[in-house]
Every structure is written in C-alpha cells, then in structure tokens.
Amino acid sequence: MPSSHRPARKLKKPARVTKPLPSDDRKRSTLDDYKVLLQCVPHATEWKPEHLRRTFDYLFSANHESRVSFPARVREHSRFKFTTRKVRSSGMVIARGPWMLHGLTLLDGDPDIIAIAPFPIAIRYISAASDETDTEWKDHIPDVAVLRRNGTVGFIDFMHDVDARRCTKLNRELGLSLEKDCGATYEIMWAGQILSQPRFYNRNLIHSNRPRWGEADLSAVERSILDQSLPATVANLSDAVPLNVLTERWEDQAPEAGHPCAGINVVASSILRLAYVGKVEFDMSRPFGPSTTVSRRVW
C-alpha cells in the first residue's frame, strides 16, 4: 500500500543576492567592489571621498544593477510592480511587499527626491556582538537608496509596525555608521508612518498624475498656470486658465469635431504634474481639492 506521507517540497527563495560580496579579510581589492559593497570604515583614509563619489554616482546611474533579483515568474506576474521615472536604470521596481509598494508611492510623490535606486548595495557596518562585549561586521541590503535635490543620499527600509525584523538596534547602529563614515542617512519607514493621511493621499495623487510617455501634452496648461499670480487656489486657477478642457477625436477628424472628456480637470492634473517636478507646492496637511492654495516653489 503506497504511503500517504508526501515528502516536503523545497521552495525556492523569492529573492537572492546576485553577486558574492567581497570577503571580510580584504577591503575593495577589485575595481568593481564599489558597485556591490559600501563599507563603513572608521577613520577613513584619503581614498574614502573618491570611493563614496564613485559609489553614489553608480547607484543613481542608468547602469546600476539591483543587488536583489527575483525569479522570472515574479518579475512577469508580480502584483507589486512599481513604475517611476526616478529609477534611472530600468524605470521599474519589483517591491517585496505592499508596504514597500506604498512607500515607493510616497517617495515618488516627493518632489525633494529626484532619484531612487532599488536594493542598491550591501552596507557593511559595525555592530555590537550578541554578548555585548565586542563588535562585529554585519551586512545589510536596504530596500531603496534616494538622492535628494540638495545632493544628500539616504537609505530606507519599509516595514510593517509588527514586523519581526523590527529592531531599534539596527536603526541606531546602521544610521550611526552611515552618518559618521559615509555622510549618508538611514531610516526605517513603518506602515503607520507611510499611510499617514492626508499626506499619503496627496502624494498618491502626485504619483498618479506624473508625466508619462504617450499621454496628453499639458505643457501649454502648465505654462499658463506658472504665468498666473501665485499663490492662488485651484478653483481660482481653473477659472483663470483659458485651457481647462481636454477633448478627444479620431485622427482623421477635424479639430472642431473633438468631444470634451468628462470627469477630467485639466488644471488640477497640471498642478499635480508641476508639483511632481518641484515647480509648485501646496499644503500636504490638508487633502488636495478646489480650495487648496498653490504657491510657487522656491529652492
């Protein structure tokens, strides 16, 4: 009689590090080490600034390769695909979960962030040993690296409030090493912080209305908004801007045959597109609407 017991099937890991890291007994002995490892070395020598510049330039370039890869079935069918023009290497991110997806939406709608690198690099930092009597090297690959408009670099992890990996020790030790040795920052964004309203609602609107290839050209409306006297409310700008209707027609029809598209506020969409590129701003502590005051952004 055949046995009813079935052997446990071995499942493949959903993600893996694509390349081996340099060993602990050497410090970047190859020319490409700066692409895979950022080691927080106390009392850095004179090569440190040049190495940091090369590392950060590579992270936000079109040649950057993610340090975590996903199987083809995940890449093709993942419901956590995220597209953004701020990822210069591929324009797309495979998020490892819903909180990373929501966090990317928050970052993409932030005009202060001009570039994002997913799973950017392995960070080797100094941590206290388990017995608290000595120190040891630890490696960590953050979810994303961000380049801010002022030139600073930050590393971010996205976690649920009850995530088993929740550890203030990681936040403290990795943040301290990056700040002191690399001039960068480290932050853990928790789910409650990510979904904080109405900020997430506003950032999601900005992300949804970002400029994309193949969409209607609203540059004339955007220029008209910037020509107005700001600050002004969305309702006042809608009345002042002459082009506030989007029409559609077949390619072989005359322009006069176009029909207005219902439910589309061209001025509001243009304001959100201008907010995405950092030309205007509005109060994120209140939901975006007709009464929202729009002002010119000053850098």
Count of DSSP H/I helices: 9
Distance between the termini: 78 Å
Pattern of helices and strands: EEHEHEEHEEEEEHEHHHEHEEHEE
Structural class: alpha+beta
Write structural notes for this entry.
The chain contains nine helices and 16 strands. It has 299 residues and is α+β, with helices and mostly antiparallel strands. The chain folds into two domains: 16-194, Trna Endonuclease, Chain: A, domain 1 (3-Layer(aba) Sandwich); 204-296, no CATH class. The strands form six sheets. The chain has a four-stranded mixed sheet. Strands 2-7-8 form a three-stranded mixed sheet, with helices on one face. The protein is elongated and about 75 Å long. 28% of the residues are buried. Residues 1-16 have a biased composition (Basic residues). Residues 1-27 are annotated as: Disordered.
